């Protein structure tokens, strides 16, 4: 089944403790991206990658890192999480003009 | 920055009625897309309309686009309780390195 998977789905952590949210897609898509969703603000793009080893900042990149060593994986790294990064995170891959979203990762930073 | 703004923010209707949601955007676009999100889940692509199209249909969905007013509308006809979800417009702006910019969404509730 064609899909985008994210892990973990739920995460509670404390300020400053590094964490990684994994994202994987099995559709051989070149373009992948990360979004965060906050009430009243819709989805805002954090980072995107147009292909392996090619990444670029989206609208809200501060406090996040990404890497794209393989086409299928696009992990999101929070080196030192802060409470304002509490949010619902979505990974997506893109074929043509349509994005396919993962199920989301709900993160709480205490 | 947010490109699309949906209106209304929330809409509640009875099953069988039609639901109309509007989206306004700011810059020139290649296309505009509508996505649906069930509570707490990932977004699902519904329909895409290109900048040179004015209207498009898909099942019970009808999308219009007015590039002179920088606005779009999504009409869901004969709504069902299962249509209850949040609906987002997303614009693919020209020169945007293929980024999609999402609005803040309309929460639709269809009452049985």
Class based on secondary structure composition and strand pairing of chain B: mainly beta
Major sheet details of chain A: 7 strands, mixed
Number of helices of chain A: 0
Structural class, from secondary structure content of chain A?
mainly beta
> What radius of gyration of chain B results from the CA coordinates?
13 Å
Series of H and E elements of chain B: EEEEEEEEEEE
Low-confidence stretches of chain B: none
Residues in β-strands, percent of chain A: over 45%
SSE order of chain A: EEEEEEEEEEE
**Percent range for β-strand residues of chain B:** over 45%
Helix content of chain B: under 10%
- Shape designation of chain B: globular
Report how far apart the termini of chain A are. Answer: 36 Å
Radius of gyration of chain A: 13 Å
Mean pLDDT of chain A: 95
User: Largest protein interface?
Assistant: A-B, 28 and 26 residues
Description:
The complex is a heterodimer of chains A (110) and B (112). In chain A, 0% of the residues lie in helices and 55% in strands. The radius of gyration of chain A is 13 Å and the shape is globular. Chain A starts with a strand and ends with a strand. In chain A, the strands form two sheets. In chain A, strands 2, 4, 5, 6, 9, 10 and 11 form a seven-stranded mixed beta sheet that branches. Chain A has a four-stranded antiparallel beta sheet with strand order 1-3-8-7, with no helix packed on it. Chain A contains no helices and eleven strands. With 110 residues, chain A is mainly beta. Chain B has 112 residues and is an all-beta fold. Chain B has strands spanning 5-7, 10-14, 19-24, 29-37, 43-50, 55-58, 61-66, 71-76, 85-93, 100-102, 106-111. Chain B is globular.
